[in-house]
Amino acid sequence: xxxxxxxxxxxxxxxxxxxxxxxxxxxxxxxxxxxxxxxxxxxxxxxxxxxxxxxxxxxxxxxxxxxxxxxxxxxxxxxxxxxxxxxxxxxxxxxxxxxxxxxxxxxxxxxxxxxxxxxxxxxxxxxxxxxxxxxxxxxxxxxxxxxxxxxxxxxxxxxxxxxxxxxxxxxxxxxxxxxxxxxxxxxxxxxxxxxxxxxxxxxxxxxxxxxxxxxxxxxxxxxxxxxxxxxxxxxxxxxxxxxxxxxxxxxxxxxxxxxxxxxxxxxxxxxxxxxxxxxxxxxxxxxxxxxxxxxxxxxxxxxxxxx
Length: 307
Description:
single chain, six-stranded mixed β-sheet, four-stranded antiparallel β-sheet
């Protein structure tokens, strides 16, 4: 759905030029959700704007639905839905009026009333855009991105400013769209959002892709997952290690505190609890700790995503 190869985007000219995207390559598969993560200034927006046809690349190849987003813009726009992080609406336009206007620009739009109901915009349908709350503006932007039945949807921070209930409703809508075969690209500052929704994640920094893969692949590359529990001091950790799968480790980093490292799955958890039962050990505070996308991001960039 999207193919970007060796993309370079610069701002300014000559010696004062700033390289925002520096040889970046990524692919978006059909029917998938692809998340692009990176700290502020990493090149996310420049990459997305180039794929949307708002910016010409200084170098590299960009193909969206098999088309050049600049040269073939007229053919591409009816098939592409774009949710901007902010703006894109007239300050005096009413919410439902804005959605109906965008719907009329498409040959086979969604039912506006059903979309308004699904995104809980009915109560503010007659409210001018400038008077909408931040969350209502976000939901309106999502509605205008979806109303034309696009094949590919680009969502820039789709749940920023939403309350937890509205955020989860948006997640469910994204998952429904994927099941219907729609391809989605999203940028987000919420790690749990990327972990739940994304099939593929690209982490970018300083204009380059520094890691990519599914959430499971990325989280398995870092520090091993771990299982912690408390028990009597001086347990025979060698005996426990012998009962576990190859590659597992057992440590007692502090008296009575035990750490099991390795591929933490239901079988390993059952083995640990069975060993404890067989040896008369009551395992207290047993907890599984998994490497998260937040951990991966911090290790790769040294920065928090919200920085």
